[in-house]
Amino acid sequence: MEHGGFAFALLLTTLAGLATGIGSAIAFFARRTNVRFMSATLGFSAGVMIFASLTDLLPEAQRSLSAALGARAGSWAALASFCGGIILAGIIDRLVPSFENPHEPHKVEEMGAEKPELDRKMLRMGLLSSLALSLHNFPEGFATFIAALTDPATGISVAVAIAFHNVPEGISVSVPIFYATGSRRKAFWYSFLTGFCEPLGALLGYWAFGDYFQGPAFGVPLAAVAGIMIYISFDELLPAVHESGEHHAGIYGLLAGMALVGACIRLTH
């Protein structure tokens, strides 16, 4: 199996992570939240990750492991790695208290027009949201990195999906930080810097699974990444679409994301 370049994969991961800064900028300059557009982008992200995981990454992992272990053992190894990725993402998610979960949606209207007073409770919420997002971004960064390392076209699709996913997360960090400090600059930088945890997660994952990145055993982290993306889609993205109330926009985005990955796979294989 041919892998894309390390530098290209890391660059894609970094750009996807730094999309949190876009969300922060939207919170500062937009007058109102376009809920329909936000729902469509979340659905699009879920569509890309679900389709890429089940039709590209997981089958590729199974082929790779079957070549190393035999058809039956390889299939079981791929399934175990896939489930392991889901469990890993779930454990990380459980580390974040639900009442401080950064995926709680915020709207740009919450920024307000006047400078708020210092609020220690809001500052704590913003800092915890930033920390929680950083934890969530480790597996997301690893997922983007592995996808790009396996197939550049799929990697681009996943990076776009993660970037769209990170936009509302940037808003979720910047809103409470701004309310607590009254500083748009601090709110932007806290939001922006959380995105750096994605390339850091990619590098840590590469270091941890370095022995698997050569040869057929590469299927282990590949299947685990497919599981991580499935968890993100069903635990974070699709529930956020439901909470927005714009279900049809989310479904249209979901189908568009699947169509994009499908087209990329057909054009590059």
Question: In short, what is this structure?
Answer:
With 269 residues, the chain is an all-alpha fold. The protein is 79% helix and 0% strand.
Question: What would you note in describing this structure?
Answer:
The chain is mainly alpha-helical and 269 residues long. The chain has one domain (6-268). The chain has helices spanning 6-17, 20-29, 35-69, 71-94, 120-150, 152-181, 184-194, 197-208, 219-244, 247-268. The protein is globular and about 60 Å long. The chain starts with 5 loop residues before the first helix and ends with a helix. Mean pLDDT is 78; it is low at 99-104 and 111-118.
Features:
mainly alpha; 0% strand; 269 residues
Topology:
Layout: H1 6-17, H2 20-29, H3 35-69, H4 71-94, H5 120-150, H6 152-181, H7 184-194, H8 197-208, H9 219-244, H10 247-268
